[in-house]
Amino acid sequence: MSDVSRIRLYGTESAPEPFRTLRAGPLEVRLENGNLRYIRFEGHEVLRAISYVVRDSDWGTLPAAISDLAVVEDPGKFEVSYVAHYQNQGAGLSVRAQITGTEAGSLRFASSAVVDKAFETNRCGFTVLHPINGVAGEPVEVEHCDGTIANTRFPDLIDPWQPFKSIRSLTHAAAPHLKARCRMEGDAFEMEDQRNWSDASYKTYVRPLALPWPYLMDAGQEVDQSVTLEMMRSETEGASIFPARDDTAARVVEFVRGEATNSRLPRIGLLISPEDTRSAIEHAGLLKEVNPAALLCHFDPTQAHGLKALEDFRSLQDLFPASYDLEYVVACDGDLEAEFDNLASMVKRSGLALNSIAVCPSVDRQSTPPGSEWPACPPLSIIYAAARQAFPETRLGGGMFSYFTELNRKRPPMSWLDFVTHSTNPIVHAADDDSVIETLEAVPHITRSARALIGKDKEYRLGPSTIGMRQNPYGSRTFANPGNKRLCMTHDDPRQRGLFAAAWTMGYASAIARADIRQWVPASFTGPRGIVDEASGSLWPVGEVVATLAALGEANVINCDCVGADKIASLCVEKDGEVFQIAANLTDRNLEIVCGDRRMLGPFEVLRL
User: Fold this and answer.
1) CA 486 – CA 454 distance, rounded (Å)
2) Distance between CA atoms of 198 and 271, rounded to whole angstroms?
3) Whether the predicted model's global pTM rises above the 0.70 cut
4) Residue 239, in any domain of the structure
C-alpha cells in the first residue's frame, strides 16, 4: 500500500503492525510483535490474546525490540523463539520467549526475564484476554493459587473491581463440546473486567494491584513465567457459544432491514475547549454546516480558565446558537458555595446562556485503582447541592468526565441529578487498528451496565468519545505523538484525520443506537480530536459522518443487520417520513454490499445505501 493510501485511510504513513498466522492442525494463532492473538481451535475463538506486557510508571506500554526470531512450522506443530528487549529510564530488560503449539490443542508461551540494572515498572509479565461476546455471564472454573476451585461465572454487568483474584487457572467452554483450560504460572494472577475501558475482553494479568506500584526489578534477578492452554473434548457436539472471528469472511454482505423500535438516536454535540474557541469562531461557517444540536464547553479553573473563556464561548454562541452545556471541573480547594457562586457570577457577566451544567471534582479525573486510597474530596451530594443552589434553573449533570471505569467505581447519588455522563476511549490498553475496532463490541456492554446503575428513568449522556485521549486518568499525562504512530494514551491519534475514524465513529453510532442515550459528543469541533482540517478549512472524513449523524439526531431507530461479515456497522433510521440506511466497512479490505442492488464498499468507507 502506498503512503498516500495509508494517509487517506489512517491519517499516517505508518503501516499497521505486520503479523503471521501459525497453524498446527485445528489450532490457529496470530503471531504479532512476539505476542499471540485470536487463538482458535476448530474455528472457535478460545482466547483473544496472550501477551507479554511491560508498563512504565504512567501505565504506558514499553515497546519491544525483537531479535533472534525463529519460527518453525510443521503440519502438527509450530515453535517460536525470540528475545525481546525493553528500555526504561536507562535500564534494560531482556526477555527470552518460547512458544509451542500442537494439533492436539496444547499451547505454551514461556518467558524468562532479566534486567541489567534496577528496572522500574508497574507491570512486567503475561496478560491473557478472554473474549466477551457470548462469554459474559457464562460459567467459568477458577483454580486459585492455593489449589481451591470455585465454579462461578464471568461477570455479566461490568464489574468495577477484580472479579477473580489469586488465579492459577481458568476453564471455560469455547464450544458445547470443547473446554479450554488456561494455566498461568510464575506469580499470582488476577482478572479485571476490561469492558470498563471499552476493551472487548476480560484481562487476567500478573502481579496483584494491591501490591505497591511502581516497583523495582533487581539487577540480575531472573523472573520466569508461563501460560499454558489445554483443549479438552466432551461428549456433546455443537456450535460455538459465541461467534468466532473470521479473517476469511465472505466479501459479499447483505443489508437486512428489520422492524421499527422504540429507540431514538441521540442528539449530537461537539466539545469546545477554551484553547480551541478562537479556531472554532474562525470556522463558524463549518460549524453551521455540521449543525450539532449542542456544544459542550469545557471549563477548568485549575487550568486558569476564567471570565475570558466564558466570554469566548458567548462570542461563539452569538455566531452559532445551539444548546450550550458547561462541563465544569470543580476545584474543591475551598468553600464550595463560594466557588459555585463565583462561577455563576462569571457566567452571568459573560452573557453565556446555558442549557445545562455538568460537574465533576478535579481529583476524580484521576482513577483510583484497587488497593489505593481515595483522594480527599467533599461528598458528591454536597458538591451537587452547591451547584444546584448556584444554578437553580439550569439542568444539572454529574458522573465522570473520564471513563465508565471511574463512574462504575464511584457511583454518584442519582437523586440530585437531571442527567449522568461519562466518556470512553479506545486506546487505554492497546492502539492497533484491530483493538480499536474491537472496542465497538464493548460499547453495548458499557451502555447496558451504565443504564443499570443510572436507572431506567434518568437521562444518560455520553461525553467525548474520540480515538485520541483528552486526559489520562491512569498517569500524569497524555503522550505526545510527533511520529504519527498508533500509540496508547496519546492526545493526537492520526487516525482521527483518516477514513478510519469516520468508520469507527459510525460503528459507535450503530453500537449505541438502541441504548436510550439522550446526547452524545463524538468529537471536538477543532483541535487534534476535532473534525476540521484547519489548514484547508474543510471537514475531515469523520466530520462528514458527524454532520450526517447530527442531521439524524433523535431519529427513530429501525433494526437492521449486515449478514455475511462480522465487521460491518449498520444503521437504519426514520426521520420526517424518510428512511436512511447507512453501512460502514470496519475492515481494510473491499466488500460488496447488497441492498436491493450491489455496491462496492471500500476499506473504512461509510456509505448511505
Assistant:
1) 34
2) 20
3) yes
4) no
* Type of residue found at 104: A
Asked if residue 117 lies in contact with residue 36, where contact means CB atoms within 8 angstroms, the answer is: no
Q: Which of residues 553, 575, 594 is at a domain's end?
A: 553
Cell, residue 585:
466497512
Verify that 73 and 108 share a domain, yes or no.
Answer: yes
The answer to whether 609 and 255 are in contact (CB under 8 A) is: yes
CATH number of the CATH domain containing 596? 2.60.40.1180
d(Cα 326, Cα 527) in Å, to the nearest integer? 19
Structural domain of residue 596, as residue ranges?
249-263+555-609
pLDDT in tens, 483-507: 999 999 999 999 999 999 999 999 9
Kindly give the residue spans of alpha helices, DSSP state H, lying in 351-409: 380-390, 404-409
- What separation in angstroms does the CA of 401 have from each of 16, 360, 470? 31, 7, 10
pLDDT tens digits, one per residue of 559-589: 999 887 778 999 999 999 999 999 999 999 9
How many domains are contained in the chain? 3
User: pLDDT digit string (tens) for 97-113?
Assistant: 999 999 999 999 999 99
Place of cell 450550550: 324
pLDDT, the chain, mean? 95
CB neighbours of 282 closer than 8 A, spacing ≥ 6? Answer: none
Give the number of residues written for the chain: 609
What pLDDT, on a 0 to 100 scale, did the predictor assign at position 237? 46
